[in-house]
Amino acid sequence: MAASSKIDPATRTYRTVNPATGELVREFPTASEAEAQAMLARAHAAYLEWREVSLAERIRMFRRYADIVEANLDELARLTTLEMGKPLAQSVGEGGLVPQMYRYLADHAESLLQDEELTIEGFSRVILRREPVGVVLGIEPWNAPLFQASRATAPNLILGNTVLLKPSELCAGSTLLFDELFRQAGFPADVYQTVLISTAQASTYIADPRVRAVTLTGSDRAGAAVAEQTGRNIKPVVLELGGSDAFVVLDSADVAKAAGIASFCRIIIGGQACALPKRIIVTERVADEFISTFTAAFINQTMGDPFDPATTLGPLSSQTAVDLLQSQLDDAVSKGATVLAAGGRVDGLGSFFKPAVITGVTPKMRLYTEEAFGPLAVIYRVPDADAAVKLANDNPYGLGGAVFGEDLVEAQRVASQLDTGGVGVNAFLGAPVEMPFGGTKRSGFGRELGRAGIDAFANLKAYGIG
Fold first, then answer.
1. What positions carry a catalytic annotation?
2. What span, in angstroms and rounded, lies between the C-alpha atoms of 329 and 337?
């Protein structure tokens, strides 16, 4: 049975299938029109009360919620692995980021939300204050459902907004557990709701004046559709979309370190994350050493049951994901790419893809511009740092990147020239909760996390006192 998860238009359900076995896990009913409208009405009513709750009380609830998430981490991780297939240890690691995020906001909310004083002639006092706006709709993906849902929710709740969270059709179970945990933490009813709605119902929400802002993490195709709808309704939106991040290795790099980090980042979550490096660009002087070290580590995976502690690579999210990645690989090979490590679709039950490494990708191949969402490593050899920068920027995406070089002057120069929302120098940056996260070009616009993640959904209201 082919593994897949989608909304079934005939039965109007979210269907989650275990990608490791192809077996149906559970069906969740999609909200009726009346149910969807009732959830929105409750979210709006909750906002009118939640915005009046003191910051001190919100902080108390945030700390309590972090403790409760930790107490339920095993179940959250189990559901995530069951629904999307990543090794259990990685689901535990993802889940651990949730209490970290809530504690960070609890610790820093007073400073993040502090009024700013401005000096303007003619006024005795001018204040810039961050105020909530209302209901925020979050549309989130399957690859890191716990972290992504929390990234959309936590900044809004600390600000005083309420949240309607639409999860991926693959991961409804893990996300729905958050509703119960918020109740246990003492949050008022309906300040957070997981909403199992259709795409059409999401569009109805976006058009409704009670929904004041939208955040989406997903494909650039989904982002374009949501941006069009929010633009038509004149509403703020944050889009965190695809990424094909460059991992640049310069002449002066510590090759062993660079290869180790690159192989780890390319394989975690099965390579299925927008912020992971997908194009490895290596200068000619260190290319042979890097390729040898990287390939040995990258293909040395134990593929299988994601609940087995020995497994380092689980299935991809669905058979559709496998088929897409295989078609990209086949296209490149048929047009002359060099295979350094054979891999690809694995026959049998489950949606498995054996790690593959190729080089010699050219602009005529799909992988030159398309995002490779899975354990397929593409390595480019370039003559020098300037060529690396040119190649890195010759891509429609601009989410993140990494530059490795012990010559820090050169490494930082290269990093400054990358057209991205973030970049790590001799490190993988990722998405720390303290920093704004987002991209450029087709990777979207707006920022989540840090103060910018609050400001994106705040009314930055100015008060002028004469």
1. 240, 274
2. 9
Cβ atoms within 10 A of the Cβ of 155, count? Answer: 29
What is the C-alpha to C-alpha distance for residues 464 and 331, in angstroms, rounded to an integer? 61
State mean pLDDT over 162-180: 95
Q: Looking at residues 413-423, what average pLDDT do you find? A: 98
Domains of the chain: 6-241+443-465 (3.40.605.10), 245-433 (3.40.309.10)
CA atoms within 13 A on the CB side of 196: 24
Kindly report, residue by residue over 321-354, the tens digit of the pLDDT.
999 999 999 999 999 999 999 999 999 999 999 9
The predicted pLDDT at position 13 comes to: 73
Sheet holding 6-8, edge to edge: 6-8, 13-17, 24-29
pTM for the model stands at 0.94
Residue 2, pLDDT above cutoff 50:
no
d(CA 439, CA 422): 7
CA distance 87 to 78: 10
Both structure tokens of 89: 């240890």
Expressed in angstroms, the distance from the first to the final Cα of the chain is: 71
**Is the CB of residue 88 less than 8 Å from the CB of residue 307?**
yes
* Rounded mean pLDDT, 165-178: 94
Q: What are phi and psi of 340, to 5 degrees?
A: -95, -30
